């Protein structure tokens, strides 16, 4: 039996995505065994992030500065704007180092079932950014779900009157994917997005 404090730590870790009760217990045991090299630095890092955490007023990213490190980067191309659903999507795209432009985080996606309406997302801020000028292309990087595609379609309609090129990420067959293992939605999208063989 663990003390109430250790049990509370285990329960707190178990609420994190990807960690269940067993994984949380293993993590707690590791932290306790390696207190000086694991627990103490983790506590310091958590305190620092907790004290300095902010949401970027420009793009909606989560960082310890406002504007965030992505928006503050002078090497970014201001003419390209990539719209994503969540901060995790921004981080994934930025980690790839393949997109040289700026980002805009919606804070979710439209969903009638979950009651998420356009006014619940940062769509008006996106329209204002585009209306401000200086943006040539808006990349709609929504997830390949029904709600993600509905959101992309809605955004395309809202941006229609602005002098920007509107694009979206390609969907379809993953590199190295075998047809037999793909779901029908992925196959359908791949067929719709087919292109001539060069």
Radius of gyration: 21 Å
Any idea how many domains? 2
CATH topology of the largest domain: Dna Topoisomerase Vi A Subunit, Chain: A, domain 2
Task: Provide the low-confidence segments as ranges.
Answer: none
Give the termini distance in whole angstroms: 66 Å
The major β-sheet equals: 4 strands, parallel
- Shape assignment: globular
Write a concise keyword list for the protein shown above.
8 helices, 2 domains, globular, two-stranded antiparallel ribbon, Dna Topoisomerase Vi A Subunit, Chain: A, domain 2, four-stranded parallel beta sheet, 13% strand, alpha/beta, Helicase, Ruva Protein, domain 3
Structure in words:
This protein has 198 residues and is an alpha/beta fold. The longest helix has 18 residues, at 35-52. Helix 1 crosses helix 2 (21-33) and helix 2 (21-33) packs across helix 3. Helix content is 44%, strand content 13%. The strands form two sheets. Strands 4-3-5-6 form a four-stranded parallel sheet. Strands 1-2 form a two-stranded antiparallel ribbon.
How would you summarize what this structure contains?
One of its GO terms (molecular function) is zinc ion binding. This protein has eight helices and six strands, in the order H-H-H-E-E-H-E-H-E-H-E-H-E-H.
Helices and strands in order:
Layout lengths: L3 H11 L6 H13 L1 H18 L1 E2 L6 E2 L5 H4 L4 E8 L2 H10 L4 E5 L17 H9 L5 E5 L4 H14 L5 E4 L15 H9 L6
Parallel strand pairs: 3-4, 3-5, 5-6
Antiparallel strand pairs: 1-2
Helix pairs in contact: 1-2, 2-3
């Amino acid at each position: 039996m663990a003390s109430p404090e250790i049990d509370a730590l285990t329960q707190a870790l178990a609420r994190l995505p990807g960690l269940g009760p067993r994984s949380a217990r293993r993590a707690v045991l590791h932290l306790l065994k390696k207190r000086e090299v694991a627990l103490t630095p983790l506590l310091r890092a958590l305190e620092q992030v907790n004290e300095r955490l902010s949401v970027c007023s420009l793009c909606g990213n989560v960082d310890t500065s406002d504007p965030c490190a992505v928006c503050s980067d002078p090497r970014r191309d201001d003419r390209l704007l990539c719209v994503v659903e969540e901060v995790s999507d921004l981080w994934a795209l930025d980690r790839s180092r393949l997109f040289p432009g700026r980002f805009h985080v919606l804070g979710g996606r439209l969903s009638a079932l979950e009651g998420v309406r356009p006014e619940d997302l940062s769509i008006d801020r996106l329209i204002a950014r585009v209306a401000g000028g200086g943006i040539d292309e808006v990349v709609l990087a929504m997830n390949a779900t029904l709600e993600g595609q509905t959101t992309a379609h809605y955004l395309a309609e809202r941006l229609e009157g602005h002098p920007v090129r509107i694009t979206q990420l390609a969907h379809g067959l993953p590199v190295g994917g075998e047809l037999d293992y793909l779901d029908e939605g992925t196959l359908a999208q791949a067929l719709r997005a087919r292109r001539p063989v060069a």
